Amino acid sequence: MTPERPFPTGPDDPTGPPPGCPAHGLAAGGPGRLAEADDLEALYERLRREHGPVAPVLLHDDVPMWVVLGHAENLHMISTPALFCRDSRIWSPLRDGLVKPDHPLMPHIAWQPVCSHAEGTEHQRLRGAVTSAMAPIDYRSLRRHITRHTQRLVNRFCEEGRADLVAEFAEHLPMGVMCELLGMPNEYGDRMVEAARDTLKGTETAIDSHAFVMAALGRLTARRRARPEDDIASRLVTHPAGLSDDEVREHLRVVLLAAYEATVNLIGNVLRVVLTDPGFRAQLSGGQMTVPEAVEQSLWDEPPFSTVLAYFAKQDTELGGRRIRKGDGLLLGIAPGNVDPRIRPDPAAGMQGNRSHLAFGAGPHECPGQDIGRAIADCGVDALLMRLPDIQLDCDEEELRWRSSIASRHLVELPVYFGPRPPQAVTQQPSHTPVPQQRTGWQVGSRPACPEAETPAPGPAPEPEPALAAVPAGPAPGAGEPGESGEPRAPRAPGEGHHPPGAWQRLQLWWRGY
Q1: N or C end of the chain, less CB within 10 A?
Q2: Is 474 in contact with 466 (CB distance < 8 Å)?
Q3: Mapping DSSP to helix (H, G, I), strand (E, B) and coil, where does residue 318 land?
Q4: In 3-state terms, what secondary structure has residue 482?
Q5: How far apart are CA 83 and CA 327, in angstroms?
Q6: Which domains does the chain have, with CATH numbers?
């Protein structure tokens, strides 16, 4: 680790704050007041220049905390449970009464009896149950569900020629898929989406919306306790860890809301870049970049959560040259850590093939559902662009609005326009062209090379259609067919005519769940 930087005010200075306090040393460049910052990205870069990879900041009501800006320092903090934990009950400002019960960030920081806040053997018990509940997910079946949900959503607006991809797509797709995985597909609907969105925004009606979500999860827990099935809720209920109904319900809430918020932001960010960056879209359309690679690039550039509140020091230690006191709070700086100049000297450079970003954390509290989020974003964006390849942004990029907080940055709306198209069957592979009607009878022989050949030309005595003729009436194998002049054509080469899908096409169909 780097040597400790001296504080601007010495430890013996009676007028300064106590040594080790995150507010200590803010005078040089002014306090990093996160609640008042209009541009958190610019603030983090200023703090990095002035203080290095670990910087002091102030939360609402001037509550002191550290923000970890370095990539290596963030990884060290979240991967060292002997030094740092997520149990806010040891946070010094909370123990000293500086953080009031109505503090705006208490819903994010307050300790809860869930695996994301637990430590030691209790963490192993709860986290083991959640991980085991997600492990048996069949990702081929999952992609089929994602594709079908995408088809349903696109069918709602494909004939209009216009849509808001945040409100009509990004906010619905993750909820529909997660309700399916949890075991409550019948609970999915506009009301559930609105309740989840309202709960996460923390509006005046957030308590009622949270109660609506919890009531649905309570009904699900009771049903699965009585009759388990093959879903996440059933596997939590029947896990050997012996979770109570309250523990099952709370962990279903954590899984649902965390996966929902992260994936909504991820889908919105990917689609925004596709619609506003011609070079990015050209790479995607031209095959130089796949949709999964586009998703990983977005996880580097615009992670769904910009920071995580919070980690807490279990003992006196040192991080990034700063003396960290027992009980100090630290923000996991996902967004600033992803653009640390020590690992990304050129922030504009592509990061294809590199998954070392901090978007899903690491260590004991690494996101257990990250592959689900990736699958929803990969498959959903791919299917949407297959249905609407001519989609364009319906406003100037500067007109896009964001709802920002210390924890995340949420795109408010993404208006688009496109050529109107008819709906497609949800079981159909997404396509921008209508699928031809299936033939009603058996086809014997080779399919004609052009559609016109299927309909005989008008005339007094049309010849029978060779492709539909019965086998005994057709020519012997290898014999030529009559041409326009009546002379026999050259024999058809083996395999000529309609070809079955090749290996690459079969792999694509399998990957998309068909």
Answers
A1: N
A2: yes
A3: strand
A4: strand
A5: 11
A6: 26-114+318-348 (no CATH), 136-305+359-417 (1.10.630.10)
